[in-house]
């Protein structure tokens, strides 16, 4: 569908006003609407000037949502932010504010629920499955081992990369 520049500006402004969007998401929309690169740049500049578009604000809300609602770990959150072309300098400061104990607290909650449904031949097998589950959720190996040890007693050694 081909749109004129004013139509695209109105639509993308409405799109940005419904939820926080990254510049990458907006660019994808503009490309899908077959807008020229110059027109896309003008639209994005105007959206930034009028505070519809802000990657820092997007990163802050994205991290908060994924941590609290999706129960994702740091690794998975960073991967998704990189996919959306958010600069590392933007999200690193936000993640540093959260500190590791926020992720650890989240993982302890997830694992305490998950442990009820995990079946294994022995405790070692259960622990391995729980660690693999935590890694799949995007938590780091050291946090995963620490939480599983707290939950089930520790015969895993601390992980040092």
Features:
0% strand, Arc Repressor Mutant, subunit A, 2 domains
Topology:
Layout: H1 5-18, H2 23-32, H3 37-49, H4 55-68, H5 74-83, H6 88-114, H7 123-136, H8 141-152
Short summary:
This protein has 8 helices and no strands. The protein has 161 residues and is mainly alpha-helical.
Domain count: 2
Q: Specify Rg, calculated over alpha carbons.
A: 21 Å
Low-confidence stretches: none
- Count every helix, treating DSSP H or I runs of 4 or more residues as helices: 8
Helix content: over 70%
The helix-strand sequence is: HHHHHHHH
Provide the β-strand percentage band: under 5%
Q: How many strands?
A: 0
* Overall pLDDT metric: 90
Tell me the span between the first and last alpha carbons: 50 Å
Give the biggest beta sheet.
none
Structural class: mainly alpha
Based on Cα principal axes, name the global outline.
elongated
Give an account of the 3D structure.
With 161 residues, the chain is mainly α. It has two domains: 5-53, Arc Repressor Mutant, subunit A (Orthogonal Bundle); 56-152. The chain contains eight helices and no strands. It has helices spanning 5-18, 23-32, 37-49, 55-68, 74-83, 88-114, 123-136, 141-152. α6 (88-114) packs parallel to α8 and α7 runs antiparallel to α8.
